[in-house]
Design a protein that fits this description.
Blueprint: H1 2-20, H2 27-38, E1 46-50, H3 56-65, E2 70-75, E3 85-89, H4 95-104, E4 109-114, H5 124-145, E5 146-157, H6 162-172, E6 173-179, E7 190-198, H7 207-211
Parallel strand pairs: 1-2, 1-4, 2-3, 4-5
Antiparallel strand pairs: 5-7, 6-7
Helix pairs in contact: 2-3, 5-6
Bound molecules: S-adenosylmethionine.
Length: 213
C-alpha cells in the first residue's frame, strides 16, 4: 500500500514537471537520465526514435542534437509535429516500414532509441515476450542503420528473456548496461538496455528470433 502510494506520488510529480516544462510525456525524464549517465546523444547527431508517440523522447533528442542534428521518429500512432523531427508512421515489425524509414537515413544514424511497448494484456509472461520481440526488432534495425561507434537504448519489460536480449546486444556493442532510471516508477518492471559503441556486427532481419534462447 505504502509502496503504491509512493509510486503514485512520484508518477504525479514527473507528470506535473513534464506539464510545466512542456514535455509531452513523463518518459522524457527517463531519456534525460539515461543520456546524462551514458552520454549517448551529441550535438549534430542523427537519432532514430522508435515508438515515439506522443513525442517526449523526440523532444529531448531534438534538444540534444541541436540545430545541426536530425531526429526521425517512428510509431504506429501519429502525434502532432515537433520541429526538426521527421515522423514515419508504421510498425517496426514490417519490412516495408523498415525500408521506408531507412530511405530517410541513407547516411546512417548515430543513435537508435526504442521506448516501444506492447499493449498490456495482463499476462506478464506474454507481455514480457512481446516486449522482448519489439526489442529484438529495434536491435536488428539498429544494427542495420547505426554507424560504427553509435549508441542504442531499448526499453524492456524485465523477465527471464532479458538475459538473452542482453547477450544479443553484446554481439554488436562494446559495452552493454541494464539501467532503471529514477523517473521510472519503483514498482515498474521496465528496465532499459543500453548499448554503447556499435562494433559493426549486423543482424539479418530474420536472425532476431533465433538469437533468443
Ligand atoms: C511508452 S510509449 C512511448 C513514449 C515516448 N517515448 C514518449 O516519450 O512520449 C510506447 C509507444 O510504442 C509504440 N509501439 C508499440 N509497438 C510498436 C511497433 N510495433 N512499431 C512502432 N511503434 C510501436 C506505441 O504505439 C506507443 O506509442
Amino acid at each position: 500500500m505504502t509502496k503504491n502510494w509512493r509510486a503514485d506520488r512520484k508518477r504525479e510529480q514527473y507528470y506535473r514537471k513534464a506539464k510545466r516544462e512542456n514535455y509531452r510525456s513523463r518518459a522524457a525524464y527517463k531519456l534525460k537520465e539515461i543520456d546524462f549517465k551514458y552520454d549517448l546523444i551529441h550535438p549534430g547527431d542523427r537519432v532514430v526514435d522508435l515508438g515515439a508517440s506522443p513525442g517526449g523522447w523526440s523532444q529531448v533528442a531534438a534538444e540534444l542534437v541541436g540545430g545541426d542534428g536530425e531526429v526521425y521518429a517512428l510509431d504506429l500512432a501519429r502525434f502532432s509535429p515537433i520541429e526538426r523531427v521527421t515522423f514515419v508512421r508504421g510498425d517496426i515489425r514490417k519490412d516495408s516500414v523498415v525500408a521506408r524509414l531507412l530511405e530517410h537515413i541513407p547516411q546512417g544514424a548515430d543513435v537508435v532509441l526504442s521506448d516501444m511497448a506492447p499493449n498490456i494484456s495482463g499476462n506478464y509472461t506474454y507481455d514480457h515476450a512481446r516486449s522482448v520481440d519489439l526489442c529484438e526488432h529495434a536491435l536488428v534495425f539498429a544494427s542495420q542503420v547505426l554507424k560504427e561507434g553509435g549508441n542504442f537504448v531499448t526499453k524492456v519489460f524485465y523477465g527471464d528473456m532479458t538475459k538473452g536480449l542482453v547477450s544479443m546486444a553484446r554481439r554488436s556493442f562494446d559495452e552493454v548496461h541494464v539501467t532503471h532510471p529514477k523517473a521510472t516508477r519503483s514498482t515498474s518492471s521496465e528496465v532499459y538496455v543500453v548499448g554503447i559503441g556499435f562494433n559493426g556486427a549486423r543482424f539479418s532481419p530474420r536472425s532476431a528470433s533465433s538469437e533468443r534462447s
